[in-house]
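Query protein
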Amino acid sequence: MRVLMFCAANEGRLVTKTEIAACCNTSENHLAQVVNRLAQLGFLHTQRGRKGGLRLERATSEISAGEVFRALASEVPPVECFAAEDNTCPLVDACRLRPVIAEAVEAFYARMDAVTLADLVCGNRALMQIMAPDIACTAEPAV
């Protein structure tokens, strides 16, 4: 989400992994994997070369946090008993906690679906001071 938020905060220009890594206090190697995955999923447009960088592929109002979380976290089950493979829990057939966890996960995603990237960035002066101190986002958040 921080990569997408950084791109949204710096709308109108290509940003680099180096800029994002410095701002978000993360390694460029890890960031390269995240950027690659976000580009594969259609959230980012990447441009190679000396004047390359990345930008959002879609408008901030068209990207929900729920969509991003689902796309990135769907490969990792919330708890072991949800794993299609490698599930060694002996309680699966008798467990009453499993459906409660499933319901909680769905509630989480439902709430995150209601939040767009625009809601997180636009009108958020404190975030803009951190991620893009020279750029002003004029749109107001929908939340």
Q: What stands out?
A: Helices lie at 2-9, 17-24, 28-40, 65-73, 97-113, 117-121, 125-131. Confidence is low (pLDDT under 50) at residues 136-143. The first strand starts at residue 44 and ends at 47. The beta strands are 44-47, 53-56.
